[in-house]
Amino acid sequence: MIDAAILAAIEARIARAIALPAARYRPFVVDGIALGLIDDARAARLAAFDCFDVKRDAVVLHPGLANPEARSTAIAGVAATLRGEGALPAWRDELYAVAREFADPPLFLIERGAARYFGVRTYAAHVNGIVVQEETRMWLARRSAQKAVDPGLLDNLVGGGIGAGFRVDQTVVKEAWEEAGIDEALARRARPAGIVCAVKPMSDGLQRETLFVHDLALPPDFVPQNQDGEAVEHRLVTLRDAARTIASEHGDDEVTLDASLVVLDYLIREGTIRPDQSRYCKLAALLRARR
Fold first, then answer.
1. Long-range contact set of residues 91-96: C-beta below 8 Å, sequence gap at least 24
2. How does DSSP assign 49-109, residue by residue?
3. What is the pLDDT of residue 270?
4. Whole-angstrom Cα distance, residue 11 to residue 83?
5. Alpha-carbon span 51 to 49, nearest angstrom
6. What pLDDT digit, counting tens, does each position of 169-203 carry?
7. Band of pLDDT at residue 251, cut at 50, 70 and 90
8. Angle at the Cα of 201 (from 35 to 69), degrees rounded to 5?
């Protein structure tokens, strides 16, 4: 059982991370559907582009852009301009599909590094790398200091955004190899375990991401080997140590918000955090804070 003080620290840390600033957010509306959230400062900048109608209560993509190709082209032009102004520091040359729900046909495609500027919902696949022996342990990975987002922080063993045209399982296989050297046969043993939702204000906009969570049992002798330079260290920890780690806000033990939610979800599902503990319901609610 996890100490009450650690549970309180986890709750406080995650609640602070997802708290929205005082700025007002307007829905970003495409084809009559609210797909994003844009703060006032960014809405004012978008008003200078002909493809947006910035209203008092919404930012509307011009209805004359009536198909995904036209919308994608218009937004790509805006994103290129914003990048030139330094407003999109996490440019990836990778496209995300934007739709009402993940499985729906996309209404447009957007550069990954521009998604937060428009506050559109994005999707990622994360994997808990688990070693089950006498005591269950979990692998964590340290992100490279060169990463544009959360440099140097601890992360799940495997995690990555789902690019346009990719399925969830394809992303798991791809990221498992790139981030931990897990081959396809082993990666396909990862078991889907539901979703958690991460909402976080960031310097380049609002992150609104749905994480498809997976659990993967790994052999006791498995040692992760990063293939793409995005992870620089791996750490195998007990579940109690994992709980202490996601409670930390500073130093070498700080974990990304996304990974903290995924780890918290696992601790709840596996009974390390129990329903009869006083903060159980509040912690569980943090996993579904979808806005």
1. 94/161, 94/163, 95/163, 95/164, 96/120, 96/122, 96/123, 96/161, 96/162, 96/163, 96/164
2. STTEEE-SS-EEE-TT--SHHHHHHHHHHHHHHHHHTTS-TT--S-EEEE-SSTTSPPSEE
3. 95
4. 35
5. 6
6. 999 999 999 999 999 999 999 999 999 999 989 99
7. low
8. 30
